[in-house]
Amino acid sequence: MAPPKLYIGRKMRDLRQGLALTQRQFAERLGISTSYLNQVENNQRPVSAAVLLALAEKFQINLADISQTDGDRLMSALLETLSDPLFDTHKPTLQELKLVTQNAPSLVRALISCHQGYRRASEQLATLDDTLGRSVSAAEPTPYEEVRDFFHFLDNYVPELDNAAEKLALELQLPDRDAGTALSEYLGQHHGVRVVRANPGEDLLRRYDPSSRELVLNPYSPAPTRTFQTAFQIAALEMEPLVAEIARKGKFHSPEAAEVCKVGLKNYFAGALILPYQLFMSAAKDLRHDLELLAARFGASLEQVAHRLSTLQRPGLKGVPVFFATIDRAGNITKRHSAAKLQFARYGAACPLWNAHRAFEASGRIIRQLAETPDGVKYLSIATEITKSGGGYRALHRSYVIALGCEISYAADFVYSDGLDTNDRSAFDPIGISCRICERTNCPQRAVPPLKHKLRIDHDTRTVVPYRLE
To answer: What's the CA gap between 404 and 291, in Å, rounded?
Structure first.
């Protein structure tokens, strides 16, 4: 069977424009004609193996990165949108979807946003709740949803902040020095800010008083949490202009969303400062992504380490593509990002067959799962419960699960694959994205019927699922 043709027009155009080269100059360097380059950039012709090798040799391009299907996350979101019965009479082909995703990504995002607005309005009309009388438009996403999508389509990588954080980490000799001490000293020496302990009973993680130049931290928080909050304060004092500019380019619908984004960007800088890109990626490779060893090496928490692994998307220096999520006891996905093919549901809870839910029953342990989604893609998934408290017996304890994983082709890069037979098809649990869009017809854990199927009710026969799908 002939290998699939590779259309990477948008990536080629972005690379050329990033180098500030004309089509003629770029074509000369690659040893091809300008007309051929023009056709490739417009996805009228596939790229040849010779051109791919020239890209790798002359521009240090990672072939694995450039040969990935363009816009996997956008394509996944579009496919989920089009699974709505609303589009049953309009079913574009896969090739049409690929072309519009590659050549008109803004149009795809506009369609997804319109569908999100339609769903919100429909759900609120159906339930007849009191929000119908409010002045806020039901079609607008919540600030957190809008910011979540903003980072999702950035590939969870913000180069300006990542590079600035890595530069400062190098100056501070992190992680060879204790990060908490180094960052506190930096705040004092460069900003005249003193780190102090919160008073007993204060319910906070961090509070900054600009008049007294004091950063107040909860002394009962774990050391990685206090370090992270110190790094956040450095971002607030030094990165505000850059953060504001990045948020402005996000063109958010509300001032609240813009402010939420700014907090997210400062959090991003804090994580990148504690876990500097190249040092962290090198350690992850050497330690085979052992979360506990990485946490000990950098003085970070398991969640900080897992989240940072999902941001290793620097062009030409990418880490293993992973998915990362946090899930509460109700099954809500509170954080999500995927650089792998697995994409999380935008509506509804996560698949109950996913091992992330079982992690609540295995407190303190990292559990493993081999899983396969309906599209036939196989994954290694790990999950562990995280419990946080403000300190003391009477303090409220927050409990949730962090989940991390990769496609099975990368499993050997993770220590958690040791002892698992990844060649045994029967070892993989069948999971879905969510019941709403899952194609599996015989799942005993199905909560609601999939949108794309009509139901057949048999009054004379009862199986585990109380209906059949046509």
So the answer is: 10
